[in-house]
Amino acid sequence: MTSNLSQAAQSAPRTLWGSKMTSLPQPIRVDARGLPCPMPIIRLAQALSGAPPGSKVLVLATDPAAPSDLRSFCEARRLTLLELTLEPSGACSALIEC
Fold first, then answer.
1. Most distant CA atoms of the chain, gap in Å
2. In the beta sheet, which residues pair with residue 28?
Protein backbone atom coordinates (compact mmCIF):
# COMPACT_ATOMS: atom_id res chain seq x y z
CA MET A 1 0.00 0.00 0.00
CA THR A 2 2.87 2.37 0.76
CA SER A 3 4.28 2.01 -2.75
CA ASN A 4 0.91 3.03 -4.26
CA LEU A 5 0.91 6.18 -2.18
CA SER A 6 4.46 7.06 -3.17
CA GLN A 7 3.64 6.43 -6.85
CA ALA A 8 0.62 8.73 -6.58
CA ALA A 9 2.77 11.42 -4.99
CA GLN A 10 5.33 11.13 -7.79
CA SER A 11 2.68 11.46 -10.50
CA ALA A 12 1.01 14.50 -8.93
CA PRO A 13 1.77 17.98 -10.32
CA ARG A 14 4.26 20.00 -8.29
CA THR A 15 3.44 23.63 -7.63
CA LEU A 16 6.74 25.48 -7.88
CA TRP A 17 5.37 28.88 -6.94
CA GLY A 18 2.04 30.14 -5.59
CA SER A 19 -1.06 28.33 -4.50
CA LYS A 20 -3.51 26.06 -6.29
CA MET A 21 -5.47 27.77 -9.08
CA THR A 22 -8.98 27.66 -7.61
CA SER A 23 -11.84 30.14 -7.36
CA LEU A 24 -10.31 32.50 -9.91
CA PRO A 25 -12.10 34.30 -12.76
CA GLN A 26 -11.39 32.73 -16.14
CA PRO A 27 -7.91 33.81 -17.25
CA ILE A 28 -6.83 34.39 -20.83
CA ARG A 29 -5.55 31.00 -21.97
CA VAL A 30 -2.32 30.61 -23.95
CA ASP A 31 -1.84 27.01 -25.09
CA ALA A 32 1.78 26.76 -26.21
CA ARG A 33 2.09 23.01 -25.68
CA GLY A 34 4.23 21.41 -28.35
CA LEU A 35 5.80 24.71 -29.38
CA PRO A 36 9.59 25.14 -29.10
CA CYS A 37 11.38 28.07 -27.50
CA PRO A 38 10.79 31.01 -27.91
CA MET A 39 7.19 30.49 -29.06
CA PRO A 40 5.60 30.16 -25.58
CA ILE A 41 6.97 33.60 -24.68
CA ILE A 42 5.96 35.09 -28.03
CA ARG A 43 2.41 33.75 -27.61
CA LEU A 44 2.30 35.15 -24.07
CA ALA A 45 3.46 38.57 -25.30
CA GLN A 46 0.76 38.53 -28.00
CA ALA A 47 -1.92 37.69 -25.42
CA LEU A 48 -0.72 40.46 -23.11
CA SER A 49 -0.76 43.10 -25.87
CA GLY A 50 -4.56 43.35 -25.72
CA ALA A 51 -5.07 42.53 -22.06
CA PRO A 52 -6.15 45.27 -19.65
CA PRO A 53 -4.17 45.77 -16.42
CA GLY A 54 -5.14 43.25 -13.76
CA SER A 55 -5.92 40.54 -16.31
CA LYS A 56 -4.72 37.04 -15.63
CA VAL A 57 -3.13 34.80 -18.26
CA LEU A 58 -2.75 31.04 -17.99
CA VAL A 59 0.15 29.70 -20.05
CA LEU A 60 0.45 25.98 -20.83
CA ALA A 61 3.80 24.86 -22.26
CA THR A 62 5.85 21.72 -22.80
CA ASP A 63 9.15 23.35 -23.81
CA PRO A 64 11.78 22.43 -21.18
CA ALA A 65 12.97 26.05 -20.99
CA ALA A 66 9.49 27.46 -20.41
CA PRO A 67 9.54 27.60 -16.58
CA SER A 68 12.73 29.67 -16.44
CA ASP A 69 11.76 31.72 -19.51
CA LEU A 70 8.38 32.56 -17.98
CA ARG A 71 10.00 33.66 -14.70
CA SER A 72 12.48 35.87 -16.56
CA PHE A 73 9.79 37.33 -18.80
CA CYS A 74 7.64 38.23 -15.79
CA GLU A 75 10.57 39.87 -14.01
CA ALA A 76 11.56 41.86 -17.10
CA ARG A 77 7.99 43.04 -17.74
CA ARG A 78 7.20 43.56 -14.04
CA LEU A 79 4.34 41.08 -14.22
CA THR A 80 3.19 39.04 -11.24
CA LEU A 81 3.85 35.32 -11.51
CA LEU A 82 1.03 34.00 -9.33
CA GLU A 83 1.72 30.33 -9.83
CA LEU A 84 4.12 28.08 -11.71
CA THR A 85 3.37 24.34 -11.77
CA LEU A 86 5.52 21.60 -13.25
CA GLU A 87 3.73 18.38 -14.26
CA PRO A 88 5.49 15.00 -13.99
CA SER A 89 5.42 14.86 -17.81
CA GLY A 90 7.58 18.01 -17.96
CA ALA A 91 4.72 20.27 -19.04
CA CYS A 92 4.22 23.43 -17.07
CA SER A 93 1.45 25.89 -16.39
CA ALA A 94 1.89 29.45 -15.25
CA LEU A 95 -0.70 31.91 -13.99
CA ILE A 96 0.43 35.48 -14.61
CA GLU A 97 -1.21 38.79 -13.70
CA CYS A 98 -0.67 41.90 -15.81
1. 51
2. 57
Name the band, by pLDDT with cuts 50, 70 and 90, for residue 50: confident
Strand, helix or coil for residue 38: coil
- 21 CB neighbour count, 10 Å cutoff: 15
pLDDT tens, 14-39?
Answer: 666 565 555 546 899 999 999 999 99
Ordered DSSP codes for 48-68: HHTPPTT-EEEEEE--TTHHH
Query: 61 burial class (0-12, 13-18, 19+ CB within 10 angstroms)?
Result: buried
Amino acid at position 68, single letter: S
Whether this prediction's pTM lies above 0.85 is answered by no
Q: Where does the chain show beta strands of DSSP type E?
A: 14-17, 28-32, 56-61, 80-86, 92-97
